[in-house]
Amino acid sequence: MKKATSGDRGSAAKGNVAPKNVDEYLAGVPEPARSTLNRVRAAIRSAVPPEATEAISYRIPTFRYKGPLLWFAAFSDHCSLFPGASVIEAFKKELKDFHTSKGTIRFPVDKPLSAALVKKLVKARIAENERKKQR
Questions:
Q1: How far apart are CA 20 and CA 8, in angstroms?
Q2: pLDDT given for residue 11 in this prediction
Q3: What is the pLDDT of residues 82-127, one digit of tens each?
Q4: What are residue 79's DSSP bridge partners?
Q5: Residue 112, domain extent
Q6: What is the reported pTM?
Q7: What is the CA radius of gyration of the chain?
Q8: Tell me: the pLDDT tens digits for 18-31?
Q9: Among 10, 50, 114, 115, which has the minimal tally of Cβ within 10 Å of its Cβ?
């Protein structure tokens, strides 16, 4: 997997300086959220193709493959995964135990989403991006 960087807008998990890369972002996240996000990141990495990239977008970690795939972030009382509204709708039964909104899945800072569920969400986003690129 390739790593990319960008200077983007938004709010960081900690501080006023935008992190330059995902490792820098995670270094600023307190435990237990850091470990939780590292597990989510590992699950995402295991599901994306080798040519996918990691970057910072909106001052939070993102993965890109044929366009933006999804973002993840830590907040004071929860972590979030942002796979988009259509993916959340498609997996609403599997996400029933989590707080969701239009494009966001929230989960406790000390309890990551299961790797199997993250992989399903990632695969769904990859399929969406591949369909969009074929048009």
A1: 9
A2: 37
A3: 999 999 999 999 999 999 999 999 999 999 999 999 999 999 999 9
A4: 74, 107
A5: 2-134
A6: 0.86
A7: 14
A8: 899 999 999 999 99
A9: 50
Tally Cβ neighbours within 10 Å of residue 74. 24
Tokens found for residue 63: 């993965």
CATH number, domain containing residue 50: 3.90.1150.200
* Alpha-helical segments (H) within the chain: 22-27, 33-47, 85-90, 115-134
Report whether 22 contacts 37 (CB < 8 A).
Answer: no
User: Residue 134: helix, strand or coil by DSSP?
Assistant: helix
What does the block give as tokens for 68? 């933006």
**Does residue 70 surpass a pLDDT of 80?**
yes
Q: Which residue has the tokens 């990495």?
A: 45
**Distance of alpha carbon 5 from alpha carbon 22, whole angstroms:** 8
Closest CA to 73 of 55, 90, 91, 59: 59
Asked if 70 contacts 83 with a C-beta cutoff of 8 angstroms, the reply is: yes
